[in-house]
Amino acid sequence: MSTAQSFLFFLIVLGAAATALRLVSRTTPTVPYPVLLAVGGILIGLVPGLRLPPIGPDLILLAFVPGLVFEASLSLDLAELWRRVVPISLLATVGVFMTVLLIGGLAHYGLGLDWASGFLLGSIVAATDPIAVVQLLRQVGAPRGLEAILDGESLFNDGTGVAIFAAVLGTILTGHPSLSDAGLRFLYVTGAGIAIGLAAGAAAVVFLVVHASGVVAVVCAGLVIARYGSRTGRLQGTQLHGFWGLLAFVLNAVLFLMVGLALPTQRLLAVAGLVLVAYVIMFAARVLPVYVLLGAADPRGRSIPWRWRHMTLWGGLRGALSVALALSVAAIPGVDPNVSVLAYGMVVLSLLIQGGLLLPVADLLRLRRVD
Question: Can you give the pLDDT at residue 220?
Fold first, then answer.
């Protein structure tokens, strides 16, 4: 079978599996669709003799993450996001640092990893990806403020997590890892990223103003009108959200299936005990940032009730970004090979355990809207 035929067969298998799992999800509403997709991908990957194209981190980071991030930002309630800007900012910045430090320390003492590998593991799984959580909360009619906190945190903590990951990996590759070197690298990556982002944004604005074609102008006008009302704006806004909603569905379907397909099953089974301990460490490391930072943002618990905080803790699933970062260090000399395997196992367990029990936990916390 040629490369093109193999890729076409790969797409057909993924499309058929996504369609079948979507039908199954309608009969099992207690399990979020992305969780079923991950399980389906694992089962497909276990089929003997099935050869599928290799899945690299660049494919996930360049082909899937940008589209999903844009769709998530498009569907954000900006007014609600602004009202929750303090807790979101704390979780997306200080919370990520706290998570990396806690996982690094606990992994060093609990898993026997050296300090550098422990912090690298923490940086890989520090960013949350609660796609399944937000979808379920919308289905059950949970408070919009809780949705904004979970969605906003996941939208903004990706940048912090990747910057910390790049800094930790860079200092490991020097052969003499140190905290001061990692700190300088983090400042460099953060500053350079902000500068490049501002420059690219300014260049895009200039290009659209000066050289916008008819199609580009219509799309941009649709974006503006959709944001600022009128009957035409509502119509175009519906079409715009419909297009990106469909694209996000396709990207999520393929992505979560690929997460399961890329699972190094045999290597994970060999270290199953360590993976379970690593998952417990990851879950425990989220307790302190969530309750301390949300408590600092709302000491009296008026705007952020305790049940919201409990769901924020439980809803800290890991997903595509963590898988991409784990795959990127799988074959790098000088990096402990167990780091990528442990990170992958932590992502899968978070999807299966936390994702699979989302609805019971939401009911327990009385987050379902009562009609």
Answer: 53
